[in-house]
Amino acid sequence: MAILVIAEHDNKTLKKATLNALAAAQKIGGDIDVLVAGHQIKDVTVGGVRKILQADAPHLADFLAENVASVVLGISKGYSHILAPSTSNGKNILPRVAALLDVQQISDIVAVESADTFVRPIYAGNALATVKSKDPIKVITVRTTAFDAVSGSGSAPVEAISAGNDSGLSSFVGREVSKSERPELTAAKIIVSGGRGMANGENFKKVLEPLADKLGAAMGASRAAVDAGFVPNDWQVGQTGKIVAPDLYIAVGISGAIQHLAGMKDSRVIVAINKDEEAPIFQVADYGLVGDLFQLVPAVVEELKK
């Protein structure tokens, strides 16, 4: 039994999501290979695997799903499982791979029962389904917050493989990358999130940013805050946003709709600040403060300065 893990990387280093997916692959058992598809790849290495398959070509530079899926398809016959992190890239590539292989994709697994049986959340994370697959090749995306990242130390042998041809089905136009000195949301150990209760975007800067600065935290938000235009879309945490599981999640002015809880309830410690003591967020919170956030948050910041 052999497993192929599709790597998330920046052509220089592997992203942590790859190490989470490798942890899931190890639980399945068997030989593990890692596919690194990109252009002008540097020392993208990882240990604890059989080998690294490197496909390097200009048309793979921007990880276009059609082109990467073609590379995966070309080497798929040698594998019983194909895994990728459940990131934007993984969720873009693997459905195409599954369709081309005429198999069912298993999405967002949170546990491995055996080589053919997996657990995944359903109903916005309110229930877990155990899925058994009889497909000859199992195509799986991995919820990265459910698996502790492997160390990845060491260096497996690298084998160059064919990058295929540009499919011509899509082309890269441009990318606008938001720049921030804060940690990346999905990798942050501490997250401070705001909701509709923040009232406006200016309050995120005045009230929440000092707290995030003091804690060295990433900034997040509920969908309600994003839809209201308070903060950018890439701050959104929840079922339709980013799934996070930091060591500490501070939810300020967030009521706790199930769609939001689905994206953060696996956090190790959850602190909720809300004036409504009946807010659903308190059902999952380890610690709760009931009161006016515009008084409580600055008070917490002052305490942290002492």
Structural overview:
It is a single chain. With 306 residues, this protein is of the alpha/beta class. The protein has 2 domains: 159 residues, Rossmann fold; 121 residues, 3-Layer(aba) Sandwich (Rossmann fold). The chain contains 7 helices and 15 strands. The strands form 3 sheets. It has a 7-stranded parallel β-sheet with strand order 5-9-4-1-2-3-10, with helices on both faces. Strand 1, helix 1 and strand 2 form a beta-alpha-beta unit. The longest helix is centred in the C-terminal third of the chain and has 15 residues. It is elongated and about 60 Å long.
What number is the mean pLDDT? 93
Gross morphology is: elongated
Number of helices: 7
| Number of strand elements | 15
Give a short account of the largest sheet: 7 strands, parallel
Question: Helix and strand layout, with pairings?
Answer:
Blueprint: E1 2-6, H1 16-28, E2 31-38, E3 51-56, H2 65-75, E4 81-85, H3 88-101, E5 105-109, E6 111-114, E7 117-122, E8 127-132, E9 138-142, E10 158-160, E11 190-194, H4 201-215, E12 218-221, H5 223-227, E13 248-252, H6 258-264, E14 269-274, E15 287-290, H7 293-305
Parallel strand pairs: 1-2, 1-4, 2-3, 3-10, 4-9, 5-9, 11-12, 11-13, 13-14, 14-15
Antiparallel strand pairs: 6-7, 7-8
